[in-house]
Amino acid sequence: MESNKILSMESRAPALKVRDWVRGEPLASFQPGKLYILEFCGTTCDGCERAMLNLIELQESYKDSGVEVVTVAAHESAASSDEARGKLDAWLAKFPELNFPVAFDDTGAMNTLWMEPSFSIVIPRLFVIDRDGYIAFIGHPDKLHDVLPHLLDGTWRTSAQAKATESERIAEDEPKVRKHALLKPIRGKRRAAEGIGDWMTALTAVEEGIALDPDSYNLRAYQVHLLLDKMWDMENGLVVLWQFVREAIDRGDAHWLVTAMMQIFRQSLPSAERFAMGEVLSEHILALDLAQCNLPASQLFPKVARHYYEIGNKDRAVELLELALKSLEGHGAKKRPQLDLLQTLANYKGETVCSGDVCVVPRTNISTGATPKAETKNLDERGALE
Fold first, then answer.
1. What's the chain's average pLDDT?
2. pLDDT tens digits for range 157-177
3. What distances in angstroms separate CA 243 from CA 121, 309, 315, one per listed residue?
4. Within the chain, how many helices (H) and strands (E) appear?
5. Are 248 and 217 in contact (CB under 8 A)?
6. Using CA atoms, how far apart are residues 199 and 217, in angstroms rounded to an integer?
7. How far apart, in Å, do the first and last CA atoms of the chain sit?
8. pTM for the predicted model, two decimal places
9. Which run of H or E residues covers position 208?
């Protein structure tokens, strides 16, 4: 397939050209009569671990329906192919129940054949190949659930809704690709600086990126990360973080608000600052219209719950986690997010909690009941400078 040819719904599925198959049986080609779910994942991708766990559940649930899952790691950053492969092997060890093949590619072929012509620049990224060998869906894994029944019965690709969804995706993704190309020299500058620990030059590169792409919340988060976690510049870090918080509130966008919220869970931040930021962000996150929101309650409420837990309002934290759990009811292959929420709920309550026949005991070695390290990027996208 030519690299300049657009890949979209109704395109014939390109070939699978990978360096090596590192798990499972190699897949030479897509076979007629089967529905393939091809996902691009990676070891440094926020959201990829959750995506892999959901794919494991999906493959188990639909193994008798002619569905085959396959993943490709084509975005590993390392000094050599062997080092990248080693990182991938270590990451895959997190998934002992892995039940589908995983490929590794550092040749650029899979990016050229799949990612670039489909205007895809972030992972996890999912492609569905229908039983006739055509691309039937391209998008984020979280959007698969709603269309999967129609994909299974073969009615999705020819539907008006599918065509509208694909048109919206291209209209949204194509400008991102142009912006991504514009930022390429800056990414190179930042990576080179990080490689030698020159954090000031890395920060300058990030700030140049922000000037070119002021709509990127991931760049703002990375700026905070460099100042607070690498340069230990609390004075300027707090100024930049407050600017991020205020802009997230002004924009009223769920991704901005949640990503800003994720920046405050650093024990290095003064408590007064952390709690003040958490209060204003929580207020605006809880005021979002969930029907119009671009993030689900299961991702919004746990961040706010953590803030309430840290300020000592355990009852409110528990209430929000229970609402997040309730929002997952009836949403198919959501077992892993449910388990994560149950675990945090057990940690907060300090007692065993159950949902149906699943019970979880508290982990007493986690003080906040949530991810103990600071998170620097959005759950669902790699940063724009990655």
1. 89
2. 999 999 999 999 999 999 989
3. 27, 25, 30
4. 14, 8
5. yes
6. 20
7. 26
8. 0.72
9. helix 199-212
